[in-house]
Design goal:
Length: 220
């Protein structure tokens, strides 16, 4: 079954720019795929439609059996709860510690304190930030902030993880760590879509590659 299904999706931004021009796409449950294409090809837009950060102009987007056209504005936070979203601005809360940023999805879900602490530390450990749990994001480097965002996205075991250039600020060793983390999550059942410029990395990973070119999907 499909976890992601796009049917003839068109996205035109205000001002007339067509970012996606008739995209039909399927990602199967449990699949891990890379989304590639030049800057401006429409990668972020495609992910934003899945995360309901943007709405399509035409066409249909169905995620995990839910037609997103039926998700009303006030239902969006709940819809996003079991998605892992890693976008380029990491959307960290700068008045909260690293620990509290990562804990947020679990707090919202109402988990107990001990359970939260255990899971947050496990997530911070996987991204190599355990020692920074009491720091505030403003005191961290770009790569560290990025990893806080990744830890928060994976802490509640999303069924679908979307990552837009997740290794953009990271050195090769850290990038490889993050890719291994994604592979482990994928093996544990999470479906994953990763947008990236890093073609060499994609080729080494040997996963499916979805190519966008000026808003059009290329076969593959
Ligand atoms: P990519 O992620 O592949 O670089 P994007 O999805 O960010 O591509 O952008 C696709 C096209 O849509 C680009 O031409 C970009 O300038 C345009 N675009 C993206 N976001 C907006 C927006 N909020 N308003 C207007 N145009 C946008
Ligand atoms: P306990 O619940 O037994 O106090 P935890 O393992 O939950 O122990 O927490 C140990 C430490 O982790 C706390 O003293 C605190 O520094 C930090 N910590 C735990 N929860 C939070 C939180 N929500 N925000 C910030 N730090 C926390």
């Amino acid at each position: 079954t499909d976890i992601v299904a796009f049917k003839n999706v068109i996205k035109r931004y205000p001002g007339g720019k067509i970012a996606l021009d008739g995209v039909s796409l399927h990602l199967e449950r449990g699949e891990m795929a890379f989304l590639t294409g030049h800057s401006g090809a429409g990668k972020s837009t495609l992910m934003k439609l899945i995360g309901l950060i943007e709405r399509p102009t035409r066409g249909q987007v169905v995620i995990n059996g839910t037609n997103l056209a039926a998700v009303k504005r006030r239902q969006i936070p709940r819809y996003r709860q079991r998605l892992g979203l890693i976008f380029q601005n990491y959307n960290l809360l700068f008045d909260r510690t690293v620990f509290d940023n990562v804990a947020l999805p679990l707090v919202i879900r109402g988990l107990g304190h001990a359970d939260i602490a255990r899971r947050v530390r496990a997530a911070l450990d996987t991204v190599g930030l355990l020692s920074l749990e009491r720091k505030f994001p403003i005191t961290l480097s770009g790569g560290e902030q990025q990893r806080v965002g990744i830890a928060r996205a994976v802490v509640d075991r999303p069924y679908l993880l979307l990552a837009d250039e997740p290794t953009g600020n990271l050195d090769p060793a850290l990038s490889a760590d993050i890719m291994r983390l994604f592979m482990r999550l994928n093996e544990a059942g999470t479906s994953i879509m990763i947008a990236t410029h890093a073609i060499d990395l994609v080729e080494r990973m040997g996963h499916r590659r979805i190519r966008l070119d000026h808003g059009h999907l290329e076969n593959g």
